[in-house]
Fold each of these.
Amino acid sequence: MEVVIKELLMLKMEVYIMSDYLKHYGVLGMKWGVRRYQNKDGSLTPAGRSRYRNPDGTLTEAGKKKDEKEAKKQIAKRSTKIYVEGNNYAAKRINGKWLNDFNKKWSK
């Protein structure tokens, strides 16, 4: 039993020794917060234009995905805005009418 435990401990130590390596996430030379394909205002850099558009002006697969994603964002933003504005408008009309009726009824 003791031999088995010692062997397991030795194996465990070997695993720790072998798993001691450097991991790298990202692109070498890349700076944090620096975009390669898009400027801060959202416009595309020359590298971004070549990535998302073919030389003939049609969209690449990455460009189609980007356009679709942007369209979904815009639709969600507009529909949320319309929903909130509609609810606020209805609430103002209902609350204002109710308050006016209440004041007319009880102010006499």
Amino acid sequence: MPRLRRAGPRAAIRRPVAAATAMVLGLLTLAYARLHAWETRAREEDRDGGYSTETVIVTALLVVLTLAVIGIIGRALIDKANSIDL
């Protein structure tokens, strides 16, 4: 009959590391499967993802332009108001 040996300190360290490695690999596999499913669904539905990106960029540029105009007009109004003598 083989003789059983006690597990040393290294064996106690390997178990949690192996469990954490398995968990991380499982999460990576799940994330890859989810991304692959999204890509497949997007290709099947023939979505136009570029249109929404273009809309966001144009909207952001319009917001920046609007804020710049408001800043210029607001500064002019404040300067005009400060120049009035009562």
